[in-house]
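Handout, page 2. Input:
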Amino acid sequence: MRNYEVMFIVRPNLEDEATNAVCENMKKVLEAAGATINEVVNMGRRELAYEVKKFNNGCYFLFKVTCDKEAVKEFDRIANISEDIIRHIVVRKED
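Output:
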């Protein structure tokens, strides 16, 4: 098991409830794949450095998780097909 930081940006035109539902759904995806979520940080709405999928801002979320690479692959797969997530990144933390 390794430590990862998972960051994703939810499209800004969703209601607050729908944005939180996307966050909860992504938590469930990681937990179902065997990940332990150590911390969830809602970074709020921020302006993007450049336009992504015709959006100039988005709602940022950061998860600090402990998991294996299969959980990361599953998160990546789900984030790629989700229309509500406009960008995501997974970074492995050095121990």
